[in-house]
Amino acid sequence: MQPTHQPLLETLNDRSAGLCEIAIRDASQLDVRISKNENITLLDFGVNRLGTFEAGLLLSRICMADLAEISVSEPSASSSISFPQLQVVTPSPIYACIASQYAGWPFATETYYAMVSGPGRLVRGKEKILEPYPLETTPDSIVICLESDQLPGTKECRELSHEFEELENIIVCVASTNSLPGTLQVIARSIETALHKLHELDFDLNLVDRASGMAPIPPIGKTSFQSLGWTNDSILYGGRVDLWFHSAMTELASVAGQIASCSSPDFGLPFATIFEKYDRDFYKIDRMLFSPAEVGCYSLKDGQQVIAGQRRPDILSRSLGESAGTDR
After folding, report:
1. Could you tell me the maximum CA-CA distance found in the chain, to the nearest angstrom?
2. pLDDT above 90 (res 38)
């Protein structure tokens, strides 16, 4: 059964482009810096500066092709995690997260590196995970998001343009992890990590009907490396995702217990430690690690539910050090 709220695949880039138009219109207020390089429009959301919270929420929606509601809530008095929570709700989790938000394209030159997400990946069409989602027509606009400490230069823009056969309307959004926009767009990936884990477990993602997720928003680190560790730990040890399935619980039982991050042998260590262990290469890290600390699975067939994993504020506090438990 297909999820019940799926939009047309061909519309995802145009949906993101519509939000980019808002970023351009309100650039001064959002502190988004606009430039042109070759045939690419660059939207700098947060490179070498803090950026703004509002721009981070907008960037998170751009990454998800505007297929999610993203909001911030204060922690409850009973919560053991005292940071504000970033909440994400989507009725179209496959398209919002896998076809758009997933950073499945490592882009690199001799002097530049970025992790690429966004619906423009569909137009490029070179990722195995995107094979079930072929485009029949080329959208009017192409949008990708780069997680990088640098803006791409002329050489990089030419290479990016070449990936899209020199199509004219290419929009590239860029933010460093060490910025508010960069931090928020990573924290908004709680659902995406759960879906990617299901993909790695060879589960049919078409059985996922809708999803919600939340994760604590950590402080901005002193360096990009520190921010990278804190944002990942916020999901690995503080994240919670709920998934609704067109499956009976008997069909879910074999995978439900494996979705949470505790199923990885690397679980329990701060992400910065794990990252160093694997030579700072995301793609060498155990693929079972990248998922929320806690996952709720709900059957739309029989009404049963199961909770896997558990949030671990103690490990998150160890990662954040003295900043844990303080107000933002």
Report:
1. 55
2. no
Q: Which two tokens stand for residue 120?
A: 């423009």
**Closest-CA residue to 310 (of 273, 266, 257):** 257
pTM greater than 0.85: yes
Please, which residues have CB within 8 angstroms of residue 243's CB and are 6 or more apart in sequence?
93, 191, 194, 208, 210, 211, 295, 296, 297, 298
Between the alpha carbon of residue 25 and those of residues 43, 289, 297, the distances in Å are 12, 39, 40
Q: Quick check: 209 and 79 in contact, CB under 8 A? A: no
Task: Give the distance, in angstroms, between the CA of residue 249 and the centroid of all CA atoms in the same chain.
Answer: 27
Residues 160-210: pLDDT tens digits? 999 999 898 999 999 999 999 999 999 999 999 999 999 999 999 999 999
Domain extent listing, the chain: 1-74+83-188, 190-320
Q: Return the CATH number of 1-74+83-188, one of 3.10.340.11, 3.60.10.10, 3.30.70.260, 3.40.50.300.
A: 3.10.340.11
190-320 CATH, one of 3.40.640.10, 3.30.1030.10, 3.40.50.720, 1.10.10.10: 3.30.1030.10
The C-alpha atoms of residue 236 and residue 43 are separated, in whole angstroms, by 29
